[in-house]
Amino acid sequence: MTPAPVIALLTAQARPILEGRLPAGIEPLWWETPEQLVDLAPQAEIGWFDMFDKAAPLEAIRRATKLQWLNSFFAGVDWLPLADLQQRGVKLTNGSGINANSVAEFALMNMLALARNHAAIVRAQDQHQWLAPQYDMPTRELAGAKVLILGYGEIGQAIGRMLAGFNAQVTPVRRSGAAKGTECALGPDEWQARIGEFDWVLLAMPGTRETKGLLSAEVIAGMKSDAVVVNMGRADVLDQGALVAALHAGKLGGAILDLTDPEPLPPDHPLWSAPNAHVTMHLAGLPTLASKIAAATRFIANCGHWQRGEPLISQVDLRLGY
């Protein structure tokens, strides 16, 4: 007797790439709207529930009592009920590394824009104002700049490689603190004492209990007065209030924040008017065609691994949160 197919409730956005490529024995159901996702959730044994508005996916997870494996395009999974999934025995895979290059390119674009004061050029064009060559517009170079990268996973490493191409001096923070090749690294207990050495401090770590508030008011106070904070990780990794205060007081050179608390920022939030603050509105990780294809290809491979009882690619440790 042929066993009943496993029901996979999948986002219709991936249908053009996935349809006809799933292994035999996995039957897809496609959802297009939040209402469809929630209504179909009780049938799901495998799920791909991603939406930027998290209300419907969270309700779908609650209703998906048959769920055995949940897949996500997103690298960050701190929005998910990890303890509940662990208790229910649900495996979770994420998009770790899928959009590393696009996030790294986005981070580098904004670092270059801040370094060369590109915002002033755009504003001048909007006002039909020609900036004379002698115009006093402060700029800097990435070449020779000292960059500390906190969070040296796929995204952090991609940013590090790109910065190396600009001859920046990249120092990653590693759990071991050991050097890798010719790369000089700091351990988790070493970087804070040396925070005043760096021109750029870049955050690319997941949101966990250990990383919350890592860039504290004390750490921010120890940074160089012209240093720039770049956050491509999670909003709660840094003390946003202390950062805003430092910017307004002229004690930091700038900030590039793809993540803020709250999101979206209210129109009257002081971060909008903070000097040299670049708020990029959580746009770094928007899916590209290449990342969508990579995510679907990984999901197809994982379907085979799951059927054979093999380890899944990018399976999240639900205790650690990444």
List keywords for this structure.
single chain; 322 residues; alpha/beta; Rossmann fold; 2 domains; six-stranded parallel β-sheet
Describe the structure.
With 322 residues, the protein is an alpha/beta fold. It folds into 2 domains: 113 residues, Rossmann fold (3-Layer(aba) Sandwich); 180 residues, 3-Layer(aba) Sandwich (Rossmann fold), CATH 3.40.50. Helix content is 31%, strand content 14%. The strands form 2 sheets. It has a 6-stranded parallel β-sheet with strand order 7-6-8-9-10-11. α2 packs parallel to α3 and α5 crosses α7.
Secondary structure: elements and pairs:
Blueprint: E1 6-11, H1 15-18, E2 26-31, H2 34-40, E3 46-48, H3 55-63, E4 69-71, H4 82-88, E5 91-93, H5 100-115, H6 118-126, E6 146-150, H7 154-165, E7 169-173, E8 200-203, H8 217-221, E9 228-231, H9 240-248, E10 254-257, H10 270-273, E11 277-279, H11 289-307
Helix pairs in contact: 2-3, 5-7
